[in-house]
Backbone:
């Protein structure tokens, strides 16, 4: 599951999108237990120089020491963790550094006690529903500033810095108050998904307007099929639809208005009103897949795989997450959010950027090894290893060998990215302000259950924005 955002202007990827596809990002769902008392610390760490610091060289700029050990924890979600095991095997072979590997979905449960005790792992893929929010870790001084890694020589071309080999804008979601403290590694696209097989059987054409989208949902309902499915227990997913509609209706200014905590970000915004009213129409007309509000992400997605709904909202990790549940002839397809009347962005515009944040704790025991591990993550060898194991692309420009064959759903995101060109956008508020993000998700949960109506949704979202704006630290974040 995936997450974050974008910055660096209006979009991410631009011409690089033509050569790349998409993949997961960390799913910004409400954390199931926020870090309550992270051990604080600056850029130092618990590193025992005698045990983990070796001799620095051109090929080993951080002095990662042969014979030392690295503690790696990876979120085992839609991408699994085989890619990390492949990385660790190569790291051991080439540097003589062995790894302790943990693949888990219980990130908070397993890691919060370790952060609290001051003995965190060396490198973490901090993702999933139980992610420890990046802004929480940062505020507690628990994250290493990654500038040293990003300014180090690239493995593939030592004449370039690591940061100069990445798709523009992909570092943005990991920035807190001007510092890159998380590396969002996977290139991700968000939007709607459908079955090419089902659409062919029903004679439906992929809709480009919201009216055409509603018409398909209505036809599906008449035939006993749900129109729109969403992962009801995790309202992050329905916000993919709501927030994309707002962005495409109001343009990049509507995105920046929310990220920059404008007093009219929601209440007083024509785009926000149009977006939420469009989704509520789906609810009012009974066009949701029956039961979808009470389902987890995998439950809802599996019913969609069983042709019980025409559409579902998700990021591009969907195909990987549903491999075992997807019929071989399902023909999974990605669809940009259809347009509301008077939209400022074109139909081809998509939300795109980087997800799946990797962090190095400030108190990691093997800081030299962790830095070198992350540097090698941003090499073509390791990027290709990831693509082979996880059916997804990374933030490294041209980082995947052309021989790697992607599955149909992921390939459809490549085509959508090519069509989008520079028409990409990304919200930053979920990465900067997790409390505000959770409040907006909670409002959407109430909306989908018809416990509140669009006017109240706008009020609650604006209240969350206004509350966040009172935090002086918010002034250090700006979506330009």
Residues:
């Amino acid at each position: 599951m995936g997450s974050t955002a974008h910055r660096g202007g209006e979009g991410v990827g631009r011409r690089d999108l033509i050569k790349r596809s998409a993949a997961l990002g960390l799913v910004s769902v409400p954390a199931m237990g926020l870090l309550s008392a992270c051990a604080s610390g600056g850029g130092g760490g618990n590193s025992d120089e005698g045990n983990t610091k070796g001799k620095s060289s051109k090929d080993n700029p951080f002095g990662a020491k042969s014979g030392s050990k690295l503690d790696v924890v990876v979120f085992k979600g839609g991408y699994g963790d085989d890619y990390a095991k492949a990385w660790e095997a190569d790291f051991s072979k080439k540097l003589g550094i062995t790894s302790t590997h943990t693949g888990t979905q219980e990130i908070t449960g397993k890691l919060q006690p370790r952060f609290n005790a001051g003995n965190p792992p060396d490198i973490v893929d901090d993702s999933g529903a139980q992610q420890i929010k990046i802004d929480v870790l940062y505020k507690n001084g628990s994250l290493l500033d990654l500038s040293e890694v990003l300014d180090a020589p690239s493995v593939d071309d030592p004449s370039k810095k690591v940061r100069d080999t990445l798709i523009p804008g992909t570092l943005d979601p990991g920035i807190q108050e001007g510092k890159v403290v998380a590396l969002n590694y996977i290139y991700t696209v968000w939007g709607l998904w459908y079955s090419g097989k089902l659409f062919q059987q029903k004679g439906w054409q992929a809709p480009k307007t919201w009216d055409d989208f509603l018409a398909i949902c209505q036809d599906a309902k008449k035939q006993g099929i749900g129109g729109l499915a969403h992962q009801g227990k995790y309202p992050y997913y329905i916000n993919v639809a709501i927030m994309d509609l707002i962005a495409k209706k109001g343009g990049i200014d509507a995105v920046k208005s929310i990220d920059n905590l404008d007093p009219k970000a929601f209440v007083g915004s024509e785009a926000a009103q149009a977006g939420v009213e469009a989704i509520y129409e789906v609810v009012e007309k009974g066009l949701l897949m029956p039961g979808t509000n009470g389902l987890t992400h995998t439950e809802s997605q599996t019913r969609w795989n069983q042709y019980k709904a025409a559409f579902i909202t998700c990021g591009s990790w969907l195909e990987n997450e549903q491999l075992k549940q997807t019929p071989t002839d399902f023909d999974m397809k990605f669809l940009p959010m259809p347009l509301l009347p008077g939209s400022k962005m074109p139909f081809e515009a998509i939300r795109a950027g980087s997800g799946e944040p990797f962090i190095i704790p400030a108190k990691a025991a093997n800081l030299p090894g962790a830095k070198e591990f992350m540097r090698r993550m941003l090499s073509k060898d390791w990027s290709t290893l990831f693509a082979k194991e996880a059916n997804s692309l990374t933030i490294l420009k041209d980082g995947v060998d052309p021989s790697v064959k992607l599955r149909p759903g992921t390939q459809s995101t490549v085509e959508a990215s090519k069509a989008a060109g520079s028409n990409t956008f990304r919200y930053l508020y979920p990465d900067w302000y997790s409390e505000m993000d959770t409040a907006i998700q909670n409002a959407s949960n109430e909306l989908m259950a018809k416990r509140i109506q669009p006017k109240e949704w706008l009020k609650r979202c604006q209240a969350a924005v206004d509350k966040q704006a009172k935090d002086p630290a918010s002034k250090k974040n700006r979506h330009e």
Notes: The longest helix spans residues 454-469. The radius of gyration is 22 Å. The chain is about 40% helix and 15% strand.
